[in-house]
Amino acid sequence: MSKNSKVLNMKDKISGNEMDLSLSNLTEVPVRELALFPKATVVDLSCNNLVSLPPEFCSLTHLVKLDLSKNQLTCLPDDLGNLVNLQHLDLYNNKLIVLPVSFSQLRSLKWLDLKDNPLEPTLAKAAGDCLDEKQCKQCASKVLQHMRAIQGEVDRAREKRLLKEKELEKKREAKQREREAREREARKREKAEEKEKRRKEYNAQMAALAAQEQQKKKNEERKKKNGQAADKKVVTEPLPKPRRSLIGLMFKLFFLLMLGLAGVAAACRLTDMQKQAICVPINIAVDDSLSWAKEQEGVVRQLVQNLSSAARELLESTQTSKN
User: Fold this and answer.
1) Contact at 8 Å (CB) between 109 and 82?
2) pLDDT tens for each residue of 197-254
3) Which of 320, 298, 302, 299 is nearest to 310 (CA)?
4) I want to staple 136 with a disulfide (CB 3.0 to 4.6 A). Which of 130, 286, 315, 321 is the partner?
């Protein structure tokens, strides 16, 4: 209900293309209500208690003439330059010190009054006095020129700042790349060291296995040599024993044979068997042997001595081998 009454009151304030809201004791600009009347291109908000304009005010792009004189404005919205159709702007008797940089975008502005504001010196010099129509038009032209210069400085400063930010970003990216390169190099070095470590461990394992295999071969060769030596000892050492045993056996057989022959000769010579036919050749042989022995007494004696020496040496060697 209040909203409808406010709209109705706004309708009471409009006449043709003019909206007169002066002397309304306003502390805020009714932006929404003004937006409902796009045909109201001339708005008078003078003689109120406005301290600031809301950012939404810059959406009223249909405004052509705006009177904000005799208020308490300390600043204007940053996007004031969006009011591209604004031609007449009255800011007389406020508390403005500076204008927003976007003010330079008000290319349609032809008339401006900034009297009785505590403007900063360079802006006040550009604004002038605005005592008549001509001076107010000059004020609009010079202030726009001044604000465009400020806009240029701001743009250059922004470009410089952006360039500096880009340089800083490039430096950060370069540092990032260097850090990543160092990290990659460190990872590569770690991998190489790890690989070298594994290679050394592998070589050590292979060397240990080779040493074990070589030791095993040496042990096998040693065992083989020891086995061959044992076999040679078993084969070579007992060989002389059968030879010595065979000689002794032959000697014993010969000795027994001689004893047997001597016994037979004695039996045929000293007993009654001497007349037997079997003993006749034996006695003849004995007689011949004795005759021959008498003839060969010296040779036989030497032969007996040699046989005795050989028998003695054989017995001594046999005893030594047994010990």
Assistant:
1) no
2) 998 999 999 899 899 888 888 888 888 888 776 666 555 555 555 555 677 777 777 7
3) 302
4) 130
Q: How many Å apart are CA 314 and CA 80, to the nearest integer? A: 146
Question: Is-contact 86 111, C-beta < 8 A?
Answer: no
Rounded Cα distance between 94 and 230, Å, is 129
> Measured between alpha carbons, how far is 136 from 143 in angstroms, rounded to an integer?
10
CA pseudo-torsion sign 113, 116, 118, 120:
positive
Nearest to 92 by CA among 64, 131, 122, 143: 131
More confident residue, 42 or 238: 42
* Cβ 46 vs Cβ 90: under 8 Å: yes
**Dihedral, CA of residue 167, residue 168, residue 171 and residue 173, to nearest 10:** -100
Q: How far apart are CA 296 and CA 217, in angstroms?
A: 69
Q: Report how far apart, in Å, the C-alpha atoms of 70 and of each of 15, 41, 48, 74 are.
A: 22, 20, 7, 12
The 8-class DSSP code of residue 321 comes to: H
**Residues 245-281 pLDDT 10s:** 677 777 777 777 777 777 766 767 667 666 666 677 7
